[in-house]
Amino acid sequence: MRLQLTKLAYARSGDKGDTANIGLIALREVFYPLLVREVTVERVKRHFKGICKGEVERFELPNLSALNFLLHESLGGGGTLSLMTDAQGKTFSTALLRMVVEISNDEAVRFGLV
Amino acid sequence: MKEMIRIAAGQGFWGDLPEAPIRQVEGGPIDYLMLDYLAEVTMSIMQKQKARDPSAGFAKDFVPMMKRILPACVEKNIRVMANAGGVNVGGCANALREAARELGLAGKLQIGVVTGDDIMSRLDGMLDRGIELRNMDTDEPLATIRERVQSANVYLGARPMAEALNRGAQIVITGRVTDTGLTLAPMIHEFGWAADDWHRLAAGTIAGHIIECGAQASGGNCQYEWRSIPNLADVGFAIVEASPDGTFVVTKHEGTGGWVIIPSVKEQLVYEMGNPREYITPDCVADFTTVRLEYEGRDRVRVCEIEGRPATEFFKVSISYSAGFKSIGTLVYAWPDAYDKAKAADKILRARLDRLGLHFDQVLTEFVGVNATHGLLAGEPRGDLPEVQLRVGVRSENRSAVVGFTKEIAPLILTGPPAVTGFAGGRPKVEEIVAYWPALIPKSEIVPRVDLIEV
């Protein structure tokens, strides 16, 4: 069953120079393994194609049921160099939540997502 | 030793809610007020101010704000930590002393002045000695842009600020320090944490990270259930109740708006985060993957089990340098065909810039209302939008090219597609770009200095 990440997580993003960081936090602890499985570096890089011009890194924070993504070269130079409306990357959070992932029907039933 | 101290965030950045510090002082019991007045490139602005006027170079809003709360701070023994000193920490302290005397507080308090962060005058000597100050992102040596440098400041940690408190300062004013240090320093002072007490230093650092953005931990910019957040108009900025064992509670004043819940704290924890295991500060390396959050009551989240590792041998340096000029021009197109008209206007503008022979390092067009925030992810707009804002930015080393661009925006109103407005600003401003050059420097090169001034 296909599911938009908004059903599984919330997020906040920020900047570190020309890199946007996105913290993706599971809405419920039981969703965290789904995020770990589905929201991979490759998929995030594909999702942000044309926006993220560098590498994507992923870090796991199981204690917070969260993943942290770094999207390098995403902010048009970042800081004062950038011409972007969102030079600070503060709306990258919900851009990531647009991603659609796949969970099994069994999981959907088990987690009350049907 | 106190069993618990309350550290309140008063400003999350330079230009945060002006009333916030006053509300923190008046809204309930606090022991410390923490104020962040420096953005990344603020120092360059302050260097320019000092070059024009030697008594300037610090955050101007700080002293008038302090006048409003200083009597209450003295009466209730609230101590204030602020990096408002910029590149003239002594000047800021003097201005504050004058204001305090005007309030009849002569002899009632001491001001701590923390300096040693400003290495601008030492740069050439350092470069000569082979300290390259390579850019942490690009690895280029500073020498390649030396003549463009406008300011150079080391991020000092919590220790010098804690020393100022140890020596009796009621108000501690600094130049560049880590934001987290502003919160950690009171804990070191009150609880006597040693320089190698890595777990507790990490706990204080993470407490600082949670409250350093003011309301961003207490309902501001909170994505989780945002519609349910009560009364954001009166949002209470975050407060940390810190204990000697390194555990702490994140909360806010009773009766204020916003909320402190596990999701709001989690959102702030991951904000501006790199590798969570290695959050590097001058005082320690904090491990965010050890943080444990517990619900303790309404608007109370308990934080514990934090671990840390030894600090590194380096300070981070924030260097600012001139990097050309930029300008952003905007116009609003109304229904019908708003998006098509905005696109057509963009084409016309670019053709004219080409015809004038104006070249730029970058020209960026965005359509606000269509794709300015999420870009390609927004997809094509559905339906005939009520209005679209055309937003065009240019950047160039050549100031006159940017000036040329600014003169081409308003004319589009009479010489381009119809139903256009949103030009009340007239010609857009040309901004000098002051960019940020992060580097590392051996700690052995830096001697932080703490002075006390009697009011």
Describe the structure.
The complex is a heterodimer of chains A (114) and B (455). By secondary structure, chain A is α+β, with helices and mostly antiparallel strands. Helix content of chain A is 23%, strand content 30%. In chain A, the strands form two sheets. In chain A, strands 2-3-5-4 form a four-stranded antiparallel sheet. A two-stranded antiparallel ribbon of chain A has the order 1-6. In chain A, strand 4 (56-61) and strand 5 (66-71) form a beta hairpin. In chain B, the strands form three sheets. In chain B, strands 11-12-8-7-1-2-3-6-4-19 form a ten-stranded mixed sheet, with helices on both faces. In chain B, strands 5, 14, 15, 16, 17 and 18 form a six-stranded antiparallel sheet that branches. A three-stranded antiparallel sheet of chain B has the order 9-10-13, with helices on one face. In chain B, a hairpin with a 5-residue loop joins strand 7 and strand 8 (248-251). The longest helix of chain B is centred in the C-terminal third of the chain and has 18 residues, at 338-355. The two termini of chain B are 27 Å apart.
Number of domains of chain A: 1
Distance between the termini of chain A: 9 Å
**What characterizes the major β-sheet of chain A?**
4 strands, antiparallel
Total number of distinct structural domains of chain B = 2
Order of helices and strands of chain A: EEEHHEEHEH
User: What is Rg of chain A?
Assistant: 14 Å
